[in-house]
C-alpha cells in the first residue's frame, strides 16, 4: 500500500507541475543532469545550412528541420500547425477594405540568447526577395504586396507590404486575389524560417557553414560543424528554446528531451563495421552505440530488421547544361531520358522507391490538402527503357554520337560510402549507383559518359558556375503547392537563376505567369498540368526516381516523430536507460 501511495503522490506532483515545469525525463543517476546523448547516422554531410538555398540536397532538410523553426509546421498528415506563430488574424483595412494578416509570434530566443523578434521574420523574407540574392523560395512570397516588383528591382525591398508593429507582431499586406490560407501553408517551408540579421551581415561567408557564426531558433543549436566532409556534427539542446529565462525552476528538457545529438559522417555504413546486437537492439558502430540510422541503401537495409520507410518530398533528377554543345539540342536530351529504365532503377535502389512519372511526387497537393498533383496530372514519363526508340530519334535527326567528345556526369560524392572498398562490396550511395547505370545505358546510344564524383565544395561550385554537362541532383519541393515548385524553372518567376543552366522557354514562362494570375484553383491546376508536361517534353530536367528515406530506430528510442516532408524529428525522442550509454558516447565525442 505504501508503494502505491508513493507512486500516486509522485504522479500527482508530476501532473500538478506539468504545465509549469513539465515532467523531466532526466534520470537521477545522470552525473551531468542534462539528459540523453544520441549518436546517429543521417547519410551524406551537409555543408551549407542556409535555409533559403539548401534545396539541392535532401540531406539538408533533415538538419534544417532540427535547428530552425518557421511560423508554422505540417504534421505527418499535412495538417497545418502553429510553430513560432502564436496566433494570426485576418483583418480588414477600414479605409481600403483590403485584407491583411496580423501575425503574433511566441516568446522565445535564438541559440545565442537574444530574443526572436518579428523583424527576424521580415528580414529573412526581404533577403529572399532582394534582387541580388538567388533563391527559388521567392515565388512563395509573391502574393505579398510589392514582393515581385521588389525582386525585379522596381521598388525597394523596404517598400514590400510587410512590417513589424511590435517586437512580437507584424502585418502582411497582399496582392489582389491572394490566397491567404495557401500563404500560411507556405510558411511551413524550411526555406522561410527567420534569420539573425546581424549574423548574416557580419559573417556573410561563414554564418551558415560554421558552428561559431550560426544562430538558430529551433530546438537544437549547432555545437560543432565545419566544412570537413568527414567530421562529425554535434547538435545540442538549445537552452533558450521557449524556456522562460526569468524562471529557473523549469525543467531543462521541458521542450526538448535529448541533450545532444552526434551525427556521424566519419564512417561508412556497411556491414563490415555496423551490426545489430539482439540483446539491446542498439546499432553498434566500432563499439559506440548508435540509436538511429537513416539513408540506408538496399544492401545495408538487408542487415536490419524493422526498417522503416518514409516518402520524401524530393525527386532525384538529371539536369542538362543547355549551353553545352551536346545538350543544346532537345533531341539529344530527350533520347537520354527515353533510354533510362526508371522501373529498373527503382528496383535497383529498392526500399519502396518509385520510378518518377513526372517531376512532382505525391507530397505536392493538386488544388487543396488531401489531393495529389501527381495523380491529377497523370504519368508524363514512360518508366521503361526504350533504347531502340532513342537511337532512332537520334538517327532521324541526323545526330551521330561519334561526333561528340566525352560527356561528364557530375554527382555529389559520398566521402565514405563511395570509397573503392564500399563500392566493391555493393554499399555505394544511390546516386553513384544510378550514375553508373545511366553511363552504361547512354553508352548503348553511342555516347561515352564519364562519371565525375565531386566533394561538396567542388560540387557546389560546378553547379553554381554551370561547369557540367549533366549533373545528378535532388529536386526538393519547397512548397506543398505545385505552382511554387514549377515556378523555379521559369526565368521570370524563379526568383533566382533557373536551376537548369541555359533553360529559358517563353511558352513555359507564359504558362507560369498565367497560373499566378489565375485565382480559380481548378483552372490554375489545368495550366500547371500543361506546364509540367512542357517541362518534361523539353527534357532540360529529367526526373528519375521519387526519393524515400529508409531508416532504423533502436527499440530503446521512442518519441521519434515524422513531419510531412518525410523528415524525422527528435525533439521529444526518449532513450530508455540512457545513462548506461553516456560514457561511450562522450568518449567518442572527445576523440573527435
Could you characterize the architecture of this molecule?
- The protein is an alpha+beta fold and 592 residues long.
- The chain has three domains: 171 residues, 3-Layer(aba) Sandwich (D-Maltodextrin-Binding Protein, domain 2); 140 residues, Dipeptide-binding Protein, domain 1; 238 residues, Dipeptide-binding Protein, domain 3 (Roll).
- Helix content is 29%, strand content 20%.
- It contains 18 helices and 24 strands.
- Strands 1, 8, 9, 10, 14, 15, 16, 17, 18, 19 and 20 form an eleven-stranded mixed beta sheet that branches.
- α8 runs antiparallel to α11 and α16 runs antiparallel to α17.
- It is globular, with a radius of gyration of 25 Å.
- The termini are far apart.
- The N terminus is likely disordered.
Write a brief structural summary.
The protein is α+β, with helices and mostly antiparallel strands and about 600 residues long. The chain contains 18 helices and 24 strands. The strands form six sheets. Strands 1, 8, 9, 10, 14, 15, 16, 17, 18, 19 and 20 form an eleven-stranded mixed β-sheet that branches. The protein has a four-stranded antiparallel β-sheet with strand order 4-5-7-6, with helices on one face. A three-stranded antiparallel β-sheet has the order 11-12-13.
Keywords:
D-Maltodextrin-Binding Protein, domain 2, 18 helices, disordered N terminus, 592 residues, Dipeptide-binding Protein, domain 3, eleven-stranded mixed β-sheet, 3 domains
Which secondary structure elements does this structure contain, and how are they paired or packed?
Layout: H1 2-16, E1 37-41, H2 58-67, E2 72-74, E3 80-82, E4 85-92, E5 99-105, H3 118-129, H4 147-151, E6 162-164, E7 169-173, H5 180-186, H6 197-202, E8 220-224, E9 233-237, E10 260-263, E11 274-277, E12 282-285, E13 288-290, E14 292-294, H7 298-301, E15 308-320, H8 330-339, H9 342-349, E16 354-355, H10 373-377, H11 387-396, E17 407-412, H12 420-425, H13 430-444, E18 449-454, H14 456-465, E19 470-476, H15 482-486, H16 506-517, H17 521-538, E20 541-553, E21 557-558, E22 561-562, E23 568-569, E24 574-575, H18 579-591
Parallel strand pairs: 1-10, 1-14, 17-18, 17-19
Antiparallel strand pairs: 2-3, 4-5, 5-7, 6-7, 8-9, 9-10, 11-12, 12-13, 14-20, 15-19, 15-20, 16-20, 21-24, 22-23
Amino acid at each position: 500500500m505504501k508503494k502505491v501511495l508513493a507512486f500516486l503522490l509522485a504522479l500527482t506532483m508530476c501532473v500538478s507541475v506539468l504545465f509549469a515545469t513539465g515532467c523531466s525525463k532526466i534520470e537521477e543517476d545522470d552525473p551531468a543532469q542534462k539528459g540523453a546523448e544520441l549518436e546517429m547516422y543521417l547519410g551524406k554531410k551537409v555543408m551549407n545550412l542556409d535555409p533559403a538555398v539548401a534545396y539541392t540536397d535532401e540531406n539538408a532538410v533533415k538538419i534544417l528541420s532540427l535547428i530552425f523553426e518557421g511560423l508554422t509546421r505540417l504534421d505527418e498528415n499535412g495538417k497545418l500547425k502553429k510553430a513560432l506563430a502564436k496566433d494570426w488574424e485576418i483583418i480588414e483595412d477600414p479605409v481600403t477594405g483590403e485584407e491583411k494578416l496580423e501575425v503574433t509570434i511566441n516568446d522565445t530566443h535564438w541559440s545565442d540568447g537574444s530574443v526572436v523578434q518579428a523583424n527576424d521574420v521580415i528580414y529573412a523574407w526581404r533577403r529572399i526577395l532582394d534582387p541580388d540574392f538567388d533563391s527559388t523560395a521567392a515565388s512563395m512570397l509573391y502574393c505579398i504586396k510589392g514582393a515581385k516588383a521588389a525582386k525585379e528591382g522596381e521598388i525597394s525591398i523596404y517598400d514590400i507590404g510587410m512590417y513589424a508593429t511590435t517586437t512580437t507582431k507584424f502585418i502582411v499586406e497582399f496582392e489582389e486575389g491572394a490566397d491567404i490560407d495557401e500563404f500560411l501553408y507556405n510558411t511551413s517551408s524550411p526555406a522561410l524560417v527567420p534569420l539573425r540579421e546581424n549574423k548574416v551581415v557580419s559573417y556573410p561567408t561563414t554564418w551558415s557553414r560554421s558552428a561559431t557564426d550560426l544562430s538558430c531558433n529551433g530546438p537544437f543549436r549547432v555545437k560543432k560543424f565545419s566544412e570537413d566532409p568527414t567530421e562529425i556534427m554535434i547538435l545540442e539542446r538549445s537552452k533558450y528554446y521557449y524556456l522562460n529565462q526569468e524562471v529557473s525552476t523549469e525543467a531543462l528538457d521541458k521542450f526538448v528531451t535529448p541533450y545532444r545529438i552526434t551525427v556521424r559522417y566519419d564512417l561508412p555504413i556497411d556491414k563490415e563495421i555496423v551490426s545489430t546486437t539482439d540483446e539491446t537492439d542498439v546499432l553498434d558502430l566500432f563499439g559506440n552505440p548508435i540509436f538511429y540510422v537513416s539513408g540506408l541503401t538496399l544492401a545495408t537495409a538487408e542487415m536490419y530488421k524493422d526498417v522503416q520507410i518514409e516518402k520524401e518530398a524530393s525527386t532525384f533528377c538529371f539536369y542538362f547544361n543547355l549551353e553545352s554543345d551536346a545538350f543544346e539540342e532537345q533531341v539529344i536530351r530527350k533520347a537520354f531520358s527515353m533510354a533510362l529504365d526508371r522501373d529498373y532503377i527503382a528496383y535497383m535502389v529498392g526500399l519502396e522507391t518509385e520510378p518518377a512519372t513526372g517531376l512532382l511526387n505525391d507530397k505536392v497537393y493538386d488544388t487543396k490538402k488531401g489531393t495529389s498533383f501527381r495523380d491529377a496530372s497523370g504519368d508524363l514519363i514512360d518508366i521503361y527503357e526504350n533504347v531502340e526508340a532513342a537511337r532512332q530519334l537520334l538517327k532521324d535527326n541526323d545526330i551521330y554520337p561519334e561526333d561528340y567528345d566525352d560527356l561528364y556526369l557530375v554527382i555529389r560524392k559520398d566521402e565514405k560510402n563511395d570509397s573503392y572498398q564500399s563500392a566493391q562490396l555493393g554499399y555505394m550511395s544511390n546516386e553513384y549507383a544510378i550514375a553508373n547505370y545511366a553511363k552504361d545505358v547512354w553508352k548503348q546510344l553511342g555516347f561515352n559518359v564519364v562519371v565525375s564524383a565531386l566533394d561538396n565544395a567542388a560540387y557546389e561550385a560546378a553547379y553554381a558556375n554551370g561547369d557540367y554537362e549533366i549533373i545528378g541532383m535532388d529536386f526538393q519541393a519547397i512548397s506543398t503547392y505545385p505552382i511554387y515548385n514549377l515556378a523555379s524553372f521559369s526565368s521570370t518567376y524563379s526568383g533566382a537563376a533557373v536551376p537548369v543552366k541555359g533553360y529559358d522557354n517563353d511558352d513555359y514562362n507564359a504558362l507560369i505567369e498565367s497560373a499566378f494570375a489565375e485565382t480559380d484553383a481548378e483552372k490554375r491546376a489545368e495550366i500547371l498540368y500543361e506546364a509540367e508536361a512542357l517541362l518534361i517534353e523539353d527534357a532540360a530536367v529529367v526526373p528519375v526516381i521519387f526519393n524515400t528515406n529508409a531508416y532504423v530506430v533502436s527499440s530503446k528510442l521512442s518519441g521519434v516523430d515524422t513531419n510531412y516532408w518525410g523528415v524525422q524529428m527528435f525533439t521529444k525522442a526518449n532513450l530508455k536507460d540512457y545513462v548506461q550509454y553516456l560514457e561511450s558516447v562522450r568518449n567518442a565525442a572527445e576523440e573527435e
